[in-house]
Amino acid sequence: MISSSNASRSFLQLPVVFVVMAPLFAATSAGAQDAPPTQSKTQVVLLGTGSPPADPDRSGPATAVVVNGTAYLVDFGAGVVRRAKSAVVDRGIAALDPAKLRVVFVTHLHSDHTVGYPDLILTPWVIGRRFPLEVYGPRGLKAMTEHVLEAYRADFEARTRDRALYTVGAFPEGHAVNVHEIREGVVYKDENVTVTAFATKHALESYAYRFESRDRSIVISGDTNPTQAVIDACNGCDVLVHEVLSLEWLARRPDFKGYAAQHHTTTAQLIELASKARPRLLVLSHASLSLRPAVDTERSSPATFLSEMSRYPGHVVVGRDLDVF
Predict the structure, then answer these.
(1) Cα torsion through 265, 269, 272, 273, rounded to 10
(2) CA pseudo-torsion sign 96, 63, 210, 304
């Protein structure tokens, strides 16, 4: 079944805009044949589904996995902190209160996935965060972090100096960052989740992540060319969040075709990949998508994506900011 999601409702309440019925997979792994669960302690929240253009309808790439009231972020594109607050206000997900954000994973260091880093460090700190960020990602993350902290050194000093007057936030420990440069394998584990990183194929060192909680398994691809690693990591997972480019958009951008062929995934390629990976739910994100033609006439509509994905025999949705699955 293929459907377009509605940003004003969770997945469990989605109105179907466009539906194609197709036979679901034979049950080759637990739950692979069933529809997504009606209730779960583990939620996937799309904080930002956009791509590099400044789209007023889609913030930069950022996805949250929320388990038992604790949030884990993947990527921090433009607008990440305000989208997190929107999830609190509009979706009732208290774990995404900015001052509570603590554990973050980065797929790669391209600007559209990391430009919200200063915001993630500073804004929650100013409003009261009292603990360091724990950030996991590829080589180069440590140097990026050091430069960001140095860029705002005067701000840190001024706000900390005025703590006697400004008592809401600016606790010194709240703007610290503990950086963990990773390799493939289990990179994080606590009482809620085990997070495994695996290498993907992009323009620079990049990783996808598999989150495994007691009730769900979730794979978030980041930017990547189709890779067997994603198929193996999902292998009947509950949710696969994957990047995608429409064939329609690429036809309008011959200048980008060569780059896309090496570093991204088309709808045709994603059908093949997801048919092997067999997720219970496939979520299209970071797509060459436009929700309003008046804003962007070049990129493709949700209907175009659904049409191009119509041969996919599983359940797929076009992800929008603040969708909850």
Answers:
(1) -10
(2) positive
Q: What percent of the chain has a predicted confidence (pLDDT) above 90?
A: 75
Q: From its phi and psi, is residue 279 left (phi > 0), alpha (psi between -120 and 50) or beta?
A: beta
Q: What gap in Å lies between CA 244 and CA 230, rounded to an integer?
A: 14
Of 238, 245, 236, 231, nearest to 198 by C-alpha is 231
Read off the pTM: 0.86
The answer to whether 171 touches 128, Cβ cutoff 8 Å, is yes
Q: What are phi and psi of 16, to 5 degrees?
A: -85, 120
Q: How confident is the model at residue 39 (pLDDT cuts 50, 70, 90)?
A: low
Residues 254-283 have pLDDT tens digits of: 998 888 788 999 999 999 999 999 999 999
What lies within 8 Å, CB to CB, of 110 at 6+ separation is 202, 203, 204, 223
Which of 12 and 272 is assigned the larger pLDDT? 272
Taking a C-beta distance cutoff of 8 angstroms, is the pair 171, 125 a contact?
yes
Question: Where residue 40 falls among pLDDT bands split at 50, 70, 90?
Answer: low
DSSP assignments along 123-145, one per residue? HHHHTT--S-EEEEESTTHHHHH
